[in-house]
Amino acid sequence: QSALTQPASVSGSPGHSITISCTGTSSDVGADHYVSWYQQHPGKAPKLIIYDFSDRPSGVSNRFSGSKSGNTASLIISGLQSEDEADYYCSSYTTNSIIFGGGTKLSVL
Amino acid sequence: EVQLVESGGGSVQPGGSLRLSCGASGFTFSGHWMHWVRQAPGKGLVWVSRIKNDGSTILYADSVRGRFTISRDNAKNTLYLQMNSLRAEDTAVYYCVRDGVGRGHDLDYWGQGTLVSVSS
């Protein structure tokens, strides 16, 4: 049940774009096991923002998008806004478990 | 509106037990797999357990297998987590989470969480 690998932190300026990577293995992401992304503000429950690599739930801003290449999935946030400052987690699954990345703290400078 | 409301958290000594409950409303509870996910203070998300919509398939993380038991009562729209032989490292906020409608195991609705604190 190894975790997915995310950068600990990323930062960007308002209006700019950032990318958060999520690297797995050939047993999860590389095996086309779908990846989801979650946003978590301090003291709040996580919120689903991307599922099935690149689909957005209803109500989620189209500034959030996702992609996948090989063993790595990516979350792209365009037009950064102050409210995007939060922790972001990716997740996927294996035969016997759900696995999360360690989380990435996004700072909007 | 989908709602998941956890209860049952609290402080317990090592070796003790707690039973968490999660009341579900706003959707057909019996139509969804459900999960428990936990988050230790200042740490990341960790999956704990999953139960199929009819209760027929159950999975656990290695760290809790043999100590925790997930169950559900579809007639009461309630998910449970019985936690025995609790350890300090089980201290965390425990979230009740719905498995979504995507093709993978997307977790589309989360409860507000209930805090479990294990210490002597």
Tell me what you see in this structure:
Chain A has 109 residues and is an all-beta fold. Chain A is built from no helices and nine strands. Chain A has strands at 9-12, 18-23, 36-40, 47-50, 64-69, 72-77, 86-93, 98-100, 104-108. In chain A, a hairpin with a 2-residue loop joins β5 (64-69) and β6 (72-77). Chain A is globular, with a radius of gyration of 13 Å. Chain B has strands at residues 3-7, 10-12, 18-25, 34-39, 45-51, 58-60, 68-73, 78-83, 92-99, 107-110, 114-118. In chain B, the strands form two sheets. In chain B, strands 2, 4, 5, 6, 9, 10 and 11 form a seven-stranded mixed β-sheet that branches. Chain B has a four-stranded antiparallel β-sheet with strand order 1-3-8-7, with no helix packed on it. Chains A and B meet through β3, β7 and β8 of A and β5 and β10 of B.
Number of helices of chain B: 0
Mean model confidence by pLDDT of chain A: 94
The portion of residues forming beta strands of chain B comes to over 45%
SSE ordering of chain B? EEEEEEEEEEE
Uncertain runs of chain A with pLDDT below 50, 5 residues or more? Answer: none
- Give a short account of the largest sheet of chain B: 7 strands, mixed
Question: Helix and strand layout, with pairings?
Answer:
The complex is a heterodimer of chains A (109) and B (120).
Chain A lengths: L8 E4 L5 E6 L12 E5 L6 E4 L13 E6 L2 E6 L8 E8 L4 E3 L3 E5 L1
Chain B lengths: L2 E5 L2 E3 L5 E8 L8 E6 L5 E7 L6 E3 L7 E6 L4 E6 L8 E8 L7 E4 L3 E5 L2
Parallel strand pairs in B: 2-11
Antiparallel strand pairs in B: 1-3, 3-8, 4-5, 4-9, 5-6, 7-8, 9-10, 9-11
